[in-house]
Each structure stands twice: as C-alpha cells, then as structure tokens.
Write a structure and sequence with these properties.
Elements lengths: L1 H15 L4 H19 L10 H21 L7 H15 L14 H27 L5
Protein name: Receptor activity-modifying protein 3
GO molecular function: coreceptor activity
Organism: Ciccaba nigrolineata
Length: 138
C-alpha cells in the first residue's frame, strides 16, 4: 500500500510540476521591458561598465528567475537563456573585452636583457673563484 501511495504521490507531483513554457515566454518580456526602462536612466556610453547598472541587471535576473519559477520551470533553462541572450545582444553587443596582444621586444632589447644576467653571472663566478684562490689575504 505504501508503495502504491508513493507512486501515486510521485505521479501527482510530476503532473503539477510540468514546466509551462508558454506562460514563461509570455511573462519574460515584462522583465525585459522593465530592464529596458531602467537602462534608459544610464548613459548608453556607460552600458559596458557593469558598476553603472549592476542593480538593474540584478533586478532583471531576479525577475527572469521568478517568472521561470512561477511557470514551474527550472532556471536557467534554454528558453530563459535565449531570452537573456537577446537582452545581452540588445544592450551589450558593443562591449567586447580588449585582449592584450603580447609581442616580443625588438631584438636589440631582447639580446641586452639576456646578456646582462649572463655577464653578471660570469663576473660573480670569476670574482668568487679569484677570491677563493687568494685566501691568504682573507
């Protein structure tokens, strides 16, 4: 009897917890509209500076999570991620991280940077050997 009751209860939970994707997709644009209204307060030149709008973005994230949960969907899910990606494309498409392109210094500088430690090492070895041979002075 317990096994049948457990199976029945599990079946009931599964039926009530199905993700209502259409409801979620219906509600998510309200989060985007709210975020868009808040972003109007921020100068568009500062849209790449997260500190300027972090609170607005946090509200947007919480809104999408709340709407997904209200529709019995887990968060993030592929549909919510697609919506969030659309918002990112709308507001942050011009925000690219500038990667530093490292390159070797010119040969003259590189040779100098290599030869100075080599020459100092040779000079120190020579000085140590010379001093050890002249132990009569020390």
């Amino acid at each position: 009897v317990n096994g049948l009751m457990t199976l029945g209860f599990a079946g009931a939970c599964q039926q009530t917890n199905l993700c209502n994707e259409s409801l979620m997709l219906e509600k998510l644009p309200a989060c985007g509209k709210s975020f868009e209204e808040m972003m109007k307060k921020v100068d568009s030149k500062k849209w790449c500076n997260l500190t300027e709008f972090i609170m607005y973005y946090d509200n947007f994230t919480q809104c999408t999570e709340r709407e997904a949960n209200n529709a019995s969907c887990f968060w993030p899910n592929p549909l919510a991620e697609g919506f969030i990606t659309g918002i990112h494309k709308q507001f942050f498409s011009n925000c690219t991280s500038e990667k530093v392109h490292w390159e070797d210094p010119p040969d003259e500088i590189l040779i100098t940077l290599i030869l100075i430690p080599v020459m100092l090492t040779c000079a120190m070895i020579t000085l140590v050997v010379w001093c050890s041979k002249r132990s009569d002075i020390l």
